Amino acid sequence: MRMKGEKSVIARVYGIVQGVGFRPTVSRHAARCKVRGSVCNKGPYVEIKAQGSEENVDQFLHEVEWNPPERASILKMDVHPLTDGETFASFEIIESEKIQGDIFVSPDIAICDKCKKELFDKNDKRYLHPFINCTCCGPRLTILDSMPYDRIRTSMGEFPMCPTCEYEYTHAETRRYDAQPVCCNECGPEVYLLTGAPADEAKVTGAVPMGTRAAVLEAAKSDRKAVPESEIRSRRAILDSKIRGREAIMETRKVIKNGGIAAVKGIGGFHLCCDASNQQAVERLRRLKTRPAKPFAVMMRDLETVERECQVGKEQLEVLDGHQKPIILLKRKENGHICSAVAPDNPKIGVMLPYAPVQLLLFQYDDGLTMPDCLVMTSGNVSGAPICRDDSDAMTELSRMCDVILSHNRLIRLRADDSVMDFYAGKPYMIRRSRGYAPLPFMTSNGFSGEVLAVGGELKNTFCIGKNDLFYQSPYIGDMGDLRTVKALKESILRMEGLLEAAPQAIACDLHPRYNTTYAAQELGAERKIPVIPVQHHYAHIVSCMAENDFSEPVIGVSFDGTGYGTDGTIWGGEILKADYRGFERLGHIRPFLQVGGDASAKEGWRIAVSMLYGICKDREKTLELIRRLELCDEKTAQIQLTMADKKINSVVSTSAGRLFDGVSAILQVRKASTFEGEASTTLEFAAEAYEESCLEAGKQPLTEFSNLGCDESDTVPDTILDPLPWTEDAKAAGNARDAEGAKENNTLLLPTDRLVWELTEAFLQGKEPGMLAFWFHERLAELICKACVQAAEKTGIRTAALSGGVYQNQLLLRLSSDKLKKEGFQVLTHSLLPPNDGGIALGQAVVAMQKLNQH
To answer: What does pTM read for this prediction?
Structure first.
């Protein structure tokens, strides 16, 4: 019964308020504040009804808003009087109700400190339980079937709770009150070992081979001197039956300790794991995974280990040990324990801490083994395919790469690879946005109305679902060159649409007509009878940067990227655009060059170098002489390349900034070819940064040595780089601007990057140090970008620049560009929690599509 003078309100709380213990926390606040009423999960929001004295209700609402659960994120809270006359005798959590509206799905949350303590407490009922969780931690998105977030709508629904867990789940005084994935050793999922085909190399001593009985016995026979009879019997037993629970974890630890490779199922998929201090083990994993040089991520036991191995700042430590626990790129220390094969020729290591209980158990268990404190933990997949998420995937794709597979029977509904981030200017700078962050939405302030789907890019694919002003970026999917990844994309889209109750009215995709993502968008559009909106690749990059910053006014967009299909049918990649949500104008670009060699040229920077030099010289013999002196390729190959250029065979006109970096890297003999995307350009960046650091340590400015490169010390970046070169006629034929830096032809700004290439080549052949030249290249390119933006601003009146595209993962170029632009008075937009690479363009595609919906 409502008492006279009491206050009754209804509050709706929006944000990440599901799967984070929000309702139990509200219930506890109500008890402390002596408030009656109810809390209900509506799907799009949590609805709270509160009744009591005015003082108590006000205090209660303050507690709800300002003291939510640790993992919650309140975006807004609307409070109104409750006018229906309803009265309450107590405060209750009532059954979830499903209604239409904006939906916020919680990402997966790393194990909390309290659960970690219980995990290793011998007196706790969840001692060494691989699936321990509470209202503050555990799987969310990856186990979710539908909203609202309740146990019956997750893959935990098939595990009935034991009486103890059910008591905790239903009683407010416990830490697991209303924790949907709650379970224990008696009633939860179970870990076990899988068996399968053998790895394609000799087994490591002590490792458990994956294979048939005959293969195992043969391997054991050939290795009998190294492997004791007891180990052979152990291997045979593994094939005869599944090993479960405690024995499965112990066997996996033994494999890793003895130099073997394990596949381990975590929260969002499988990892391949081995001892990061064991050079032989890591090299073997590289051979089996066909990954010769791309860095492996390393999971470290604890923060003490991280600080021993890496240089880490306060801001990085907070995120590293936060509830997302992403992979963070950290500069490695000398004399660390991690072997060189983990990240060859790379000054940084991708580091993360254990975030799933089973990962903690790999480091610490009561079996007497002393384990390595640094483990390689790389995505469990075949190169180009999506991360494996179930036993069938693991047996098919991973069994030949490892010695043991540790799996479990909690189903993964949606894949979620690890998030990867760097830091820039003291803030996160995302490289891959996935576990822990997706699908948290980006919010705009445009008053959009409608729903769209953007299928994203061909590389580093993520997709995006837009609902009004909220844009939900998916977890990382992968590269679309593999049909398995295309299938995973389609499956993930359907699941996310279901979770978000989305019915898109339009589909956005890349402009490229032959991308698998384009085909997928067209198929979905035809099936659903809704329009498909192509969005130019580099324009999508700029809009993604604008949307992340919630900036909708026109910008000068600097989109420096690998390759993207241009509106003129050529390959773009080093673009200066005038852009807003409604459209774009191409104001300028780097000087076009002939990209000879098709797909191979994207991996072999020496091909770019050859074609650029030939385009500059216009003289076959002079070019051949340069090729010989630079040792770019042999004579026969060089002749073929030049002939292909002459006849325009397998050649396209390109302004790709990514390929420009590859070509410069080859000329400076830093890296002539790449075994993974971006290898040559990132190695060039590392060389430049090492040179800059050495100069600063010596107390001198990096640019003071550049006078011999045609620069005056008093003006390190003059208006002209060198005397005109013999390309005038060709420049006219190719549609280029005149040679003066920053000049215009046909109203287009030109960045004369060919001049940078020519002067770098001459300086290198004169014996200048490659690191110095690498830094000079970054400095000069940033100056060209700044000058182009200044002239674009003079033309358009726009004084805001947005920097995006995969090349802007290069933090040296990012810093130099941003600093120069700010000195010229520009407001500079950069990325933070959305990758500048192709993993972020789906947001830009979705915003463009939403704008088109709202124009009609």
So the answer is: 0.85
